[in-house]
Amino acid sequence: MAKLVTIKRAEDDLHLARAYVKSFILLPSGVLGLVCMIGGLGSLGYQLFTGETYTAATFMQSSGLLLLGGLFGYLQTRYHRYLLKEFPAVLAGRMRAASARTSGKIKKTPAVPSIEHRGRSLVPALYVLGALGLLAASVFTAIRGEVDPLPSVLMPWAGFYWARLFFWRRVLQ
User: Fold this and answer.
1) pTM to 2 decimals?
2) Which of 66, 94, 67 is nearest to 80 (CA)?
């Protein structure tokens, strides 16, 4: 009888982990990616039609920013997919905690299990380095003057969020 309960618990954890990914990773990524892409492309279009500052270098740098953001989004998605595969109970616990906060009844907040794997202590530093890398690339292209400041900030984040959305699609079908 214990095996049936264990199997049901693992299936429930995987189901809740997938719901967590859909609710707290994919939905925000889709919305933020769309906002950043519309803002970035709109400001590049404005730069194209209002002045003589849009050149081939502008196109190359803005495309490079988009690809750099996409690379960082891909790397983060790989890590999150690893968490879904190896630690679904952690993501399921996060979903349980989020649903306990949003429900109208006062419930005891369930404990979220910790993630223990080799290199776990490096993950926060890598997140910070990734964000600083995107900001540094944005500042570099804005200072060079080929790309206006607004698209130089928005394009890498558009690539980041769209990559997260794109590389999850095969996993959650």
Assistant:
1) 0.87
2) 94
